[in-house]
Amino acid sequence: MQANFTPGPSQLYFTVKDHAKRAFRDGIPSLSHRSKDFEAIFDSATTGLKELLGIPDGFSIVFTSSATEIWERSIQSLVAESSMHFVNGAFSKRFFEIAQQLGKKPSKIEMADGQGFHSHEFNGNPEVIALTQNETSTGVSLPLSFVHGFRTKYPQALVVVDAVSSLPYPVFDYSCIDSLFFSVQKGFGLPAGLGVWIVNQKCIDKAEQLLAGGTMVGSYHSLPSLVSFAKKKQTPETPNVLALYLLSKVVADFLHKGVKAIRSETEYKAALLYNWLESAEVAKPFVIDKTFRSHTVIVAECASAMSKIVPALHAQGLFPGEGYGKAKSTQLRFANFPAHSKEQFEWLVDALEAV
User: Fold this and answer.
1) Which domain range does residue 307 map to?
2) Is there a contact between 179 and 78 (Cβ–Cβ < 8 Å)?
3) How many Å apart are CA 179 and CA 201, to the nearest integer?
4) Does the predicted TM-score (pTM) go above 0.90?
5) What pLDDT score was predicted for residue 8?
6) What's the CA gap between 28 and 60, in Å, rounded?
7) Do 102 and 51 fall into the same domain?
8) Position 167 confidence tier, pLDDT thresholds 50, 70, 90
9) How far apart are CA 122 and CA 105, in angstroms?
10) Domain co-membership, 56 together with 181
11) Among candidates 345, 183, 336, 321, which has minimal Cα distance to 262?
12) Helix residue ranges per DSSP H, the chain
């Protein structure tokens, strides 16, 4: 028996194995992406996601190879000149750097690792405000009140939210954001290789406006192309049909369990681990301000105790994620996704207490 707490790829949801067996039995991986059977899978995945995440009418869902690709497609499709990035870790920084690499003129407000943001104020008039709601590298989560607060202050800007390592936990107000995206290998407990991009009509209109004005917004995976095929319950290219099938099935499993129950369990598990970290001698929460502590990626500052903690956990079949980048040798990251049961977290905390 073991449990994988790495924050991505993370532990598979317990139903995935059976769904995959059924998919191969039924020939799902060799389905034509222009067939009615595929359209039914596409429809099941998108309809289920809209119900699970409370996505209102007026938003479209399209699929890419990864959330990393969506960073690039977002900038290509939504930015003619400038974007504003709130940077407080490796992944939010990468979003900013991609805008630079694509020849745009991005600006950034940057905080140190482990810190969040207290002000919406900035200079300039960007076309896109880019937010990483849950910074996977540091365990900092931006409060939803902060994310939603940009709409009234900057009504002309498109608010684009990376929620890769937090969904399906947060409850977003879609009247306050324009684009939301994630990949499936974290909170959805699936193998890597599929990105989910949720956009409203303002985003689609902006991409079409840029395209009409001669701006390159991508080729087969431009936003207008992705949306035009999504209206037919299809994709521009031959997609990963198996990944879409598995997503549709796991989303149905989540709906059967109930998203409220999933969110409640997430909070219970996070409280277990944070309570231990608050009282432990060998480790402490990396994020000091509780306002910004992630419920879904919990980062522990372990310093010299790493040499004791990691072997002890491995001996029991518990596998935490390493710290990211320069923190690899001093921090541990613990994913808290729907694939992780309450019993696994209780087991984890018992093992940590024994160190």
Assistant:
1) 3-10+259-353
2) yes
3) 10
4) yes
5) 86
6) 24
7) yes
8) very high
9) 15
10) yes
11) 336
12) 16-25, 36-53, 67-78, 90-101, 144-148, 150-153, 201-212, 223-230, 241-257, 259-279, 306-315, 342-353
